[in-house]
Structure to design on (240 residues):
């Protein structure tokens, strides 16, 4: 590791300078891709939450089903498919698909899923899924332990009616559609790539274990009482 970090003063470090810089660029690109995917998933969450509200659906269950389907498709496309499509190399397209080159799809360097693909793209994918685990589970804990107490401490003295105080002390809602979509995204990515990366089985198992206990705690102690959903949302996720 000492040969990879500047300054490159000794002859040995000078020999490794070019290699070290290339490795640093590779690590930087991998980390940047991971952060970009996670950030885009957050953006998609807020965008679809806003768009689904335009549907004016009749029941809370129908709203959750609509959110689940859209959020799952967008996150799975962003996490599990875009990375593959951008890094694959397609020599020729049918005429009606030439427009996809504008999105850099098929302009990559990999003709097949080989050992080098697993080393670079596969590592990025595993790191993305691991980071998704923390970004999916930690926000409810942050809201309960930090955001809500700070909001109460700052705003409670300015409220003069019971209704205003109720809004200040109200805990955040439990987003069933979002948590199902995030979990299904982890499961689908694991099943899609675990044949070549068995480590994903362990990653998914750890995710399910941590998510079960933290989601249970968040639902019972850190969130307001959810509406009365029927079984249609769970059936929909089970039949995907």
């Amino acid at each position: 590791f000492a040969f990879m970090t500047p300054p490159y003063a000794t002859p040995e470090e000078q020999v490794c300078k070019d290699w070290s810089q290339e490795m640093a660029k590779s690590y930087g690109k991998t980390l940047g891709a991971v952060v970009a995917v996670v950030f885009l998933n957050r953006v998609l969450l807020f965008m679809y939450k806003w768009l689904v509200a335009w549907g004016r659906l009749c029941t809370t269950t129908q709203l959750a089903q609509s959110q689940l389907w859209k959020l799952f498709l967008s996150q799975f496309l962003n996490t599990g498919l875009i990375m593959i499509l951008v890094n694959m190399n397609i020599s020729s397209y049918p005429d009606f698909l030439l427009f996809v080159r504008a999105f850099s799809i098929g302009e990559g360097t990999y003709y097949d899923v080989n050992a080098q693909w697993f080393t670079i793209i596969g590592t990025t994918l595993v790191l993305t899924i691991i980071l998704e685990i923390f970004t999916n589970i930690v926000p409810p804990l942050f809201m309960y332990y930090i955001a809500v107490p700070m909001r109460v401490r700052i705003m409670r003295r300015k409220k003069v009616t019971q209704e205003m105080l109720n809004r200040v002390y109200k805990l955040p809602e439990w987003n069933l559609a979002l948590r199902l979509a995030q979990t299904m995204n982890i499961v689908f990515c694991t099943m899609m790539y675990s044949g070549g990366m068995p480590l994903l089985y362990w990653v998914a198992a750890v995710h399910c274990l941590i998510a079960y206990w933290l989601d249970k705690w968040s639902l019972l102690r850190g969130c307001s009482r959810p509406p009365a959903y029927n079984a249609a949302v769970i059936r929909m996720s089970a039949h995907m």
